[in-house]
Every structure is written in C-alpha cells, then in structure tokens.
Design a protein that fits this description.
- The complex is a heterodimer of chains A (about 600) and B (about 260).
- Chain A folds into 4 domains: about 25-130, Immunoglobulin-like, CATH 2.60.40; about 140-290, Immunoglobulin-like, CATH 2.60.40; about 310-425, Immunoglobulin-like (Sandwich), CATH 2.60.40.10; about 490-605, Four Helix Bundle (Hemerythrin (Met), subunit A) (Up-down Bundle).
- Chain A is about 25% helix and about 35% strand.
- In chain A, about 20% of the residues are buried.
- Residues about 15-25, about 130-140, about 140-150, about 250-255, about 265-270 and about 420-430 of chain A have low confidence and may be disordered.
- Chain B has helices at about 1-45, 50-60, 65-80, 85-95, 100-115, 125-135, 140-165, 165-195; strands at about 65, 200, 205-210, 220-225, 225-235, 235-240, 245-250, 255.
- Chain B has about 260 residues and is an alpha+beta fold.
- The termini of chain B are far apart.
- In chain B, the strands form 2 sheets. A 5-stranded antiparallel beta sheet of chain B has the order 7-6-5-2-8. Chain B has a two-stranded antiparallel ribbon with strand order 3-4.
- Chain B has 8 helices and 8 strands, in the order ααβααααααβββββββ.
- The chains are: A alpha+beta (about 600), B alpha+beta (about 260).
- The interface of A and B includes residues 442, 458, 473 and 474 of A.
C-alpha cells in the first residue's frame, strides 16, 4: 500500500517537474516570418507569429499593419525535446492581403506577456503590380509568371539556335514544381522534333530552389539533338506528363477551381480525400536555324564528321611475319556527333590483305580496329592515316594526319608461299552499275489478229461434247476388258459364245453339202454340228448323243417342239449313217431347216 | 450414174472456189488491219502518240484484237503519261499473251510509277501465289489445262484397269489430279466471272460517290492504276467495287475497262 502511494507521488512529481521545469528554465522569444518576401497585388502572404516557450500566447491582433489587411487563420503548436530539455512553440498564422504597391515593413511587434513586453523582429515585404523579373531565374518566361500555372511550369533551353547539320546540340528541360504540390509519375518529356535526331535522355536531376520566395522542386532533363538537314526548323514544344494528387475538400464535395485549390492553406484540409489528376506541362518551342556545312575549305576525303576530335593510332604488333595479322587501332576522341565519324582514311593498303574494320562507340570516343595482313616482306610502314572533320566551334574544317608507322615484316616460315589468299580487292570491283528505267519498245508486228473474244473455249459446244469422249473411251475399255476377262476365265461362257459364233458358218457349210447332194457327208456334218453346238451351248462333254435331250435339255424347260426337232434330227442322222441313199433331197432340206430353227431358238431364247 | 459423178465434181469445184475466195477476202482484210497496225507504229516512232492510238483503236473498232496491239496501246498511253490507261491495256494484253516478257516488264514499271493505293489490297500468301501462277495462262489455256487434267485422270483409270497398278498409287494419283482440277476450275471460274467486268482507274484521283451524280457525297477516293470491279453501269456512271469491298459510283470516263 505504502509502495503504491510512493510510486504515485513519484510519478506525479516527475510529470509535474517535466512540465514546469522548462517553463522556468526557457527564455520567452518572439519571431515573425512571411512565406514570401515579394508578392504581387493579386497574391496573398502568409505571416506566422511564433511564440517560443509561451504556453498560451495571446491571439495577437495584427490590425493596422501598413499596406496590408490581415485575417487570423489559426494556431499551430510544436513541442520538441532537445537534450532532455523541452521546447514548445506556438505559431499564430495570419493571411495578409496587400492593399497597395510599394515596400512595406512588417513589425516590430510588441507583445505583453505576464506583465513583460517582448519585441519581435521586423521584415520588409515588397508588393508589386505584377511579379518583377529580378527575383525569378532569368530563364523563366514572363508570360508563365502571370498564368495560373506558376506553380508548375517547364522551361526548355537549347544551347544554340544557329547550328550546323549533324552538330550535336545539348537541350535542357527544367520542370519547376511548387514545393507544396504533390506531383508523381513524372514522365520524360516528349518533344516534337521534326528535322532533328533526338538523342537519349540522361538520368534526370532533382533539386530544390527558391523562386520569388517560394520553394520549388526542379526536375532537370538533359538530352542532345542533331539537325538532319539545312534550313529553319521548329523544335518543340516539349511536353511533360505527370500526375497531381489533390486533397479533396470533404465539405465542398466537389473540388473547386484550380485557383481556389492553390489559395487554400495546405493544412486546412488535412482530412480531405486524395484524388489524382493527370496534367501536362508544355514548354515553348524554339526555332533553330541550321546551316549546311560550308563547301569552302572542305578537305578531300571529308566524310561528314562534325565535332572536335583527336586521333590516336596504335599498331600491334610492330614486327610480324608475312601472313600474320597486324592490328591497327584508331581511336577518335572528343566532343561531337560520333555517329558521323567514319573510319580514318589509310593511304594505300594494296600490299596488305584487309578485313572489314570493326568499330565500337563509347561515351566520348569511337574506336576502329582494322586487321592488316602483310602480303610481302617488302613492307616497311603502315601508310599515312588521315582524318578530317568540321569543327563547329571554330566554323572550319580540321584535318589530322598521322605519319606512316614503321613496322617490320619478316619472311613467312612456311615454304608454301603465298599464305595470303587472293580475293578480289575492293578496287577491282567495278562501280555499281546504275541502270536506266523505262518501258520496252512497242511490238513491230501485230501478231495474230483475231476477232474479238466474246466467248471462250469452255462455252463452245464442240468442246463440251469432246468432254464425253474420254468417258466413252473409259467405258469402252472397261467393257472390252471385262469381256475378254470372262472369256478367259469362264469356259462355259466362252463355249456358249463360240457356239453362237460358229453356228452360222457351219450351217453355211452344211448348205454347201446339201447343194452338192452328198447325203452321207451332209448328215455327218449335221450330226457333228449338233453335237458341237449343243455341247458348247450347254457346256457338255464332247460326243453327246440323243440321250442328252431327256437328261439335260428337258429339265431346262425348253419347249417340247424344239426338243422333238432335236430328237428327230438326231434320229435322222443315225438312220442316214447306215442307209444314206434312203434320204431324198427334200428330207435333207427339212433336216437343214430343222437345225436352222433349233439354232434360231437357242440364239433367241436365253437358256 | 455418170451424171451424179459430174454433179459431184462441179460441187467440189464450187466449194473449193468459195473457200479460196473467202480466205482471199479474209487475207485482204487482215492485210488492211496490218497496215493500220504499221501506221500506228510509225506514229509511235514519230512520238505522235495520239495518232498512233487512233490507228490502233481503228483495228479494235473493226472487231479485231491481239496481244501486241494492246501492248502497243499501253505503251502509247504510258508515253502520254496516262498510267492508268496504260495499265488497263497491259492487263488486256496479258489476257492474250500472258507469258510475254516485255509486257511483264512494262506492266511492272508502270505499276511502280503509280501511287500504290491498292497495294494494300493485293493478295499475299497462298492465294497470291496461286493467282500469280494462273495469271500465266489465258482463259482458254486454263480450259485446255483442265481438259488435259481430266484426260490424264481417265488414262490413269484405264491403266489401272488394264495393268493393275496398286490401288494406293491409283488413289493418290486420282486425288492429286482431282485437287489440281478443282483448284484450276475455281480459278477459271473466278477469271471468267471477272472477264470484261474489271477496270483500271484512269484519272489521277477519282472520287467514288454514294450515288451516281456529281453532287452526291464522296465515299472514298481511288488513285490512278487501281483495279476495280464493275458491278453495273448507269447513264455514264459505273458502280464499282474496290478490292476491300467498298462500293461506290464513278464516272465512266474515269475508268478504262480491261
């Protein structure tokens, strides 16, 4: 219980001590500050009245400041502990509106605290009609100052407005941003650069400066340009895009005009919501005059290099054998457009075999490496090297000549000279032929003059009919092939076909025998014919007799009259064989007629 | 019997005479046409292109044509600076002598001189390659080619029936032939559908309108040398279709039909 009490008392003392100690030990002081030392009539000034080590400062009435009307905005308090000592300061803020032009003195102010009078410092403020030039960096154009965008603007500076073609000109773009603005996502400037080659941007620089008494952040972009052709060209404007974050006033709901926003105190809408707006800032455009490189004094072999350069030549090794490579290194160093720099000219390399030179561009230099292979041991030097360029600083051409460099070439080890393979040297390649372009001459002869085509072959009737021919051909071939195939494989069919084919011939022969009156031969022939014919027709073995009528023909449903006739003829033949003289011509004719009818029947009816 | 024989001989003589006479007349006619052609050539040599054109066109008016005739007309228009018409006549010549090298060279040269607005509409890839391949044929050439393909297929079938080549080879052969046949058929169809319905823009800048009159709103513009399809004609105006499918009306004299 006791311990608790002691703790409480201790704590109380500690806190009390902390609070009272500084009040006792610290001096009271007063300070007056303004945010700008120079204002225009349309502008406002913030005046802060800081009381140090005063717990409850009086709301000092600032009425009657010469040349200004004032309005109390509110207090702000800062408490800081430095080396265990607490310091507190209370700042009363006022907004001053200028009433007239001139230089005004604000203060000193006298304040009575606890019976003691304290005096503040005094300061001078200049009020101008419009913002004067001298407090502003000289590269800020006047028209920007007046505009609303004086809180954010960009300035482009081009080093030269008269230049030569291909000369490198540095370009500097500064983006000024009022310190109180919240600007994000600043992008690289986009410049309209018709007629110019635009180089790459260096890393942007960022720093703060004071412009017209207000703190600004500056983002600085640096790049280079080179003109592509002579004439007068517009360069710019450069456009920088960024985002601005704005605290929206919760009470107004809508964000007010741009102007209104900037006039608000930053602390006023501390709890406002943030909103991001894209904004673009444009610089002015510049007109740049571009001169062509002068013709006068142009050295022979000048290839367009522009700048101020030095040439360094290095040969490695200086002692070689025939066929071994020598590395000739040429370093061109200096300020200027390195893309215009071509390889220095080497007087004559006929005694060397050469390869395509390699080049490498660094920050301020360009290195060319040429491999040379000596063809003979008679070589003593690497010939003179010449490099010429136009120096825009001096407005004249300059030429650097490097004297021949001595080298020693030893004979090759190998017996089988020459080591160096011969290719067409560049000299022997004829200049590229330029061919003319025009139309070929008219035709001397009219060719075949035909009546004008109105219809084509495909609509011609004959041609269309012709299309049937291949089909017919195909069908014919197939039919013939199939038939021959059947004749070859189907004996029954083949025999039946043979029977029909030979019937007429045999009948004719038989008729001949009848005419001759050879009865025996006649009946022999008839019998043979019937045997063959019926045998082939019905695919029967050779030597058939009259029995065949009942065993084979009858079951096939052949009409009885025909069967009867067949039987009759067979019988007649049998009889005639034994007594041929008994048969008259009439009977023979009957028999012939009979077999004629039989054949006729079998050929007409499919059996 | 004898009578009939004499009649036959008389008939034969008359027939031969008739054929001779008509071919003589034709020869005379054709020699007249040739004279016109040579006259045109003479004018061309003297750089009288207008007169040369008149002479050449007289042959066309008589109902005759040839590749060389259109080629020379193309040259005349080229010399006059009328590149659109030159292209049109070269195109006409190409229909009759698609393999002529001078023609191809001149055609390309003129094409390279006109502003190639239409180049964006040209076909590339397989379709373009096919079109270029078939442009070497005349329409009749393509027809004959089709017939030969058909004949080959039939012969292949006959060989298949008689010699008994493997079924697979036969199938592959027929498939290939059918594929080429179908392709050629559709190319021929396209060509014959376009025949006489294509034109070349003959003026520097032609405005295609929404309606066939002067005060109508301009829909799009056509630069010289662009090939268009004529859909219909109406009172001195042609309804045309550009390769990208846009349709508008153009005055007749601003076009040169192929």
């Amino acid at each position: 219980m006791l311990i608790k009490k002691i703790r409480f008392i201790f704590l109380f003392l500690l806190i009390f001590g902390f609070l009272t100690l500084p009040a006792i030990s610290q001096e009271i002081s007063l300070e007056v500050k303004v945010d700008k030392s120079k204002v225009s009539m349309s502008d406002k000034l913030k005046l802060s009245f800081t009381f140090r080590n005063v717990k409850t400062p009086p709301a000092y009435s600032l009425s009657g400041i010469d040349g200004f009307s004032s309005r109390y905005i509110g207090p702000s308090t800062v408490v800081s502990v430095v080396n265990g000592q607490m310091q507190s300061s209370v700042t009363q803020n006022y907004l001053l509106t200028p009433l007239g032009k001139g230089v005004f003195t604000i203060g000193p102010f006298f304040v009575n605290i606890k019976g003691k009078t304290y005096t503040s410092n005094s300061l001078k403020v200049e009020v101008t009609e419009s913002l004067s030039q001298d407090s502003v960096p000289e590269d800020i154009p006047a028209n920007i100052q007046e505009s609303l965008q004086e809180k954010i603007f960009a300035v482009m500076k081009v080093d030269k407005i008269k230049t030569y073609v291909n000369e490198i000109i540095p370009v500097n773009i500064k983006l000024y941003l009022d310190n109180r603005l919240d600007i994000q996502d600043i992008q690289y400037p986009q410049i309209k650069h018709e007629g110019f080659f635009l180089g790459e941007y260096q890393l942007p620089k960022q720093y703060g400066i004071i412009v017209r008494g207000s703190p600004y952040n500056v983002v600085e972009f640096n790049t280079t340009i080179a003109a592509l052709s002579a004439g007068e060209f517009n360069f710019g404007p450069a456009r920088i895009q960024c985002n601005m974050s704005v605290r929206r006033k919760s009470r107004s709901g809508m964000f007010g005009s741009f102007d209104e926003f900037f006039q608000d105190d930053v602390f006023e809408n501390f709890f406002g919501r943030h909103q991001t707006y894209p904004i673009a800032v444009e610089t002015e455009k510049k007109t740049i005059g571009i001169l062509p490189l002068p013709v006068e004094g142009r050295p022979e072999g000048f290839e367009g290099a522009i700048g101020n350069f030095t040439l360094k030549v290095d040969v490695e090794p200086k002692e070689v054998k025939v066929g071994d490579p020598v590395n000739l290194k040429m370093i061109i160093e200096g300020q200027g457009n390195l893309s215009t720099v071509t390889m220095p000219q080497i007087a004559s390399l006929k005694e060397f075999k050469t390869y395509e030179p390699q080049s490498e561009t660094k920050d301020n230099s360009k290195v060319f490496e040429q491999i040379l292979i000596p063809r003979t041991e008679n070589i003593t030097v690497i010939p003179e090297i010449k490099f010429s360029f136009f120096n825009p600083g001096k407005d004249s051409y300059q030429e650097i000549i490097k004297e021949p460099i001595a080298i020693k070439v030893l004979p090759s080890d190998s017996k089988s000279n020459p080591l160096v393979l011969e290719y067409d040297s560049p000299d022997s390649v004829s200049a590229r032929e330029v061919l003319g372009k025009d139309i070929a001459y008219i035709k001397e002869h009219p060719g075949k003059l035909k009546t004008k085509q109105t219809s084509h072959l495909y609509s011609h009737k004959g041609f269309l009919l012709l299309q049937l021919l291949p089909v017919c051909l195909l069908l014919g071939v197939i039919a013939v092939y199939k038939k021959s195939e059947r004749l070859r494989t189907d004996v029954k069919y083949a025999r039946s076909l043979r029977a029909s084919r030979q019937a007429r011939r045999h009948l004719f022969e038989i008729q001949g025998l009848l005419k001759q009156g050879k009865t025996g031969d006649f009946y022999d022939a008839v019998f043979k014919f019937l045997q063959e014919y019926l045998g082939d027709k019905f695919h029967l073995p050779k030597g058939i007799t009259v029995d065949v009528v009942d065993t084979v023909l009858k079951p096939k449903g052949i009409s009885d009259s025909v069967l009867g006739k067949v039987k009759d003829v067979f019988k007649e033949c049998d009889m005639a064989r034994f007594a041929p003289t008994d048969f008259t011509k009439k009977q023979m004719e009957e028999a012939l007629k009979g077999i004629g009818e039989i054949v006729d029947y079998f050929e007409r009816n499919k059996v | 019997m004898k009578f009939i024989r004499i009649g036959r001989i008389v008939f034969l003589i008359i027939a031969i005479g008739g054929i001779l006479a008509s071919s003589l007349a034709m020869a005379q006619n054709s020699s007249g046409l040739k004279q016109l052609f040579y006259k045109g050539n003479r004018f061309y040599k003297e750089a009288k292109y207008e007169e040369a054109i008149t002479a050449y066109k007289e042959i066309i008016d008589k109902g005759y044509e040839s590749g060389s005739l259109y080629y020379n007309l193309g040259n005349c228009f080229f010399k006059k600076g009328e590149f659109g018409r030159a292209i049109a006549y070269y195109e006409k010549a190409k229909l009759l002598m698609p393999q002529d090298r001078d023609l191809e060279a001149n055609y390309r040269h003129v094409k390279s001189l006109v502003q190639q607005q239409g180049s964006g509409f040209e076909k590339y890839g397989v379709a373009g390659a096919l079109e270029r391949f078939y442009s070497r044929f005349t329409i009749n050439g393509m027809t004959v080619f089709l017939f030969l393909l058909y004949l080959t297929a039939v012969l292949l079938a006959i060989v298949f029936v008689i010699i008994k080549i493997p079924r697979l080879y036969f199938g592959m052969g027929i498939f290939a032939l059918t594929a080429v046949f179908i392709l050629t058929f559709f190319m021929l169809r396209e060509r014959s559908l376009n025949f006489g319905r294509q034109a070349i823009v003959a003026s520097r800048q032609v405005q295609a309108k929404f309606e066939p009159f002067e005060r109508a709103t301009t829909y799009f513009t056509l630069s010289e040398g662009v090939k268009v399809k004529i859909i219909s004609r109406n009172d001195g105006w042609c309804k045309i279709k550009r390769n990208d499918g846009k349709i508008g009306w153009v005055r007749k004299e601003q076009l040169q039909s192929i």
